[in-house]
Design goal:
Layout (H helix, E strand, L loop, with lengths): L20 E6 L2 E12 L5 E2 L3 H10 L7 E11 L2 E5 L14 H8 L8 E3 L5 H4 L15 E5 H7 L2 H10 L3 H11 L6 E4 L2 E4 L2 E5 L8 E7 L2 E5 L7 H4 L6 E2 L5 H18 L3 E2 L8 E7 L2 E6 L7
Parallel strand pairs: 5-6, 6-7, 7-8, 12-14
Antiparallel strand pairs: 1-2, 2-4, 3-13, 4-5, 9-10, 10-11, 11-12, 14-15, 15-16
Amino acid sequence: MPCMPQEAPMHQPPQAQVPALYHRRIGEIVVTAVSDGYLDGSNAILQNLPQEQIAELLTGAFRPSPRRGSVNTFLIHSAGRVALIDTGCGPNIQASAGKMFDNLAALGLPLAAVDTVMLTHMHPDHSNGLADAEGAALFPNAELGLHEAELAYWQDPAAAERVRASGQGVPYFAVAQAQMAPYRNRLRPFRGGEVFPGVTAVHLPGHTPGHTGYRIESGDESLLIWGDIIHVPEVQVPHPEACMQFDVDPAQAAETRRRIFDMVASDRQLIAGMHTHFPAFAHLARRADGYHLYPEAWRTAL
C-alpha cells in the first residue's frame, strides 16, 4: 500500500524575542552587550537644533519620532573575574526598559558572580539597577566603582539646589543617593587608570562632571565603551553640537563629543555606547560632510 503522508506538526509562532545578548572578544577579554531595552521620549530634550530638523533626521533614518533610544549595559569577563558596566533603568522608568536582569538570567549569570560594578555616571537609566525597592544591593558581592567627580556631584547639596532651581532632574539626586546607599562600604572612587583587569577609565566630562568611558585592551585589540557621548545617533553624529537637556555642562559635553569623535575616527577605534543601537558595537568615520556611524557586522563566533 502507498505510504500516506504524515500530517505536519503544528508550530506556534514565537511570543517573545530571544535574549538580547551579544558577545565580542577583545583579545583575551570577552565583552557582552546586554540590552536593557529602550526608552521613548520627547524630541524636545534635544537642544541646539530646530525641532523640525530633529524630526526630519529621525524619520529620514527610518527611526521613530518622537525619539526611541536603546539602553545598553556591558558585561566584562577578564582574568577570571566578572564586571558589569552600568545597571540600566531598573523596573520603574518604562515598561520597555529594565530588561537587563532577564537577559543576565538567560545568560545563566548569577548576580552574586559580579565582583565589580562600574558606572559611566549616575543618571537613572544607568544606575537604577543597583538596588531593589527595599534598598538592598542587587549585586551582593560587587564593589562599586565610579569617578570621584561623579560621586562628589551627586553628594553635593549645592548642585542639587542648582538643579532644583533650574526645574530639571530634581528627583535624580535622591534616587542616585538611594541607589548608592547599600554600597557605601564598598565604594571605590577613581580618577583614572586601570580599574579592572584590562579596563582603563577615561574621564569624559560634560554630560555629568564624572561621566566616564572605559577602554578595554588585550593584545592588539581594543574597545572604547564611551557611555553617553551620544544619546540619539541619528541626530548627534551628524550634529555633535546637539546637546541633551539634562547635560550638566552642555558646552563641555559638546566639546568632549567633538574631541572623542575626532579621536576614534582618526584611530579607527572600535566603540560601543549605552545608547548606540543594540548590539551597540560600531566605528565612526570622518566624511566630507561630517561623521558617519557604521555598526559593526554581526559575528557568529568568538
